[in-house]
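re: that chain from earlier
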Amino acid sequence: MGFSADWLALREPADHRSRSAGLLANLAKRVEGRDTLRITDLGCGTGSNLRATAPALGPNQEWTLVDYDPALLERATKVLTEWADDARTIGDKLVLVKEGKNIGITFRIADLNVELEKVISGEIDIVTASALFDLISEPWMRRFVQALRSTPAIFYTVLTYNGEDEFIPAHPFDWGMINAFKIHQKRDKGFGPAEGPMAAATLARLLKEAGYGVETADTPWVLKPSDIALKTELLKGLHRAVMETGLIADNGADDWLFWRTSMGDQKGSRMKTGHTDILAAKA
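^ sequence. v structure.
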């Protein structure tokens, strides 16, 4: 499983505007008044989740950004430094000031298949992730919830794919393409057979079974003609995934892709990709 820094940069504006403001505000209320927030971000990529979340939290924050790809962590250092009002390096830590927030960042390369319990341990206030849990299996989720329970942390994850997709205008192949894509999403992405579009529901259920109070919010990408670059890459990616399943004839899928990309910047066209945000705290 891996994602390029360019893809993460392309999706970031849609990610940020699609998040649930209500759940983020509820998270901020739950940790309000704590001296220094300790936050662990799983599968952090280039730090987009930090950039969207940190402004809503308290004045002193210590983040641990965890990813398997050292190249993404290197890019994160650069992007976060440019994002901040002030940045300096102290030892192995990147220290930022952004809009009055003091944000310390430690970068950690880790394989979450092997090191999950080590990464989620100790005194953590928040465990967070973005666009991660649809890529993993239910057994891994169970491991995650068990590790989470060993900490006092609140859990906050955003933009988990939920399969609620829609295209306007419609095409006769939409249903077949989307369903073939959902089947592809359940393939093993490195954490066992992925839950794919069922991930948010599965994760919420496991958290409730473990005694957490759980809040959810639908947070779809709603892409319009002005999002043409992102729409085009999404359509190409969906097409590639469908081709790997062998469930749709090549010519039919190719015709669908040609028609969809040609409609991408037409007035009134719209593409919705469903996501769910989750906030969970021990009841």
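The first strand starts at residue 37 and ends at 42.
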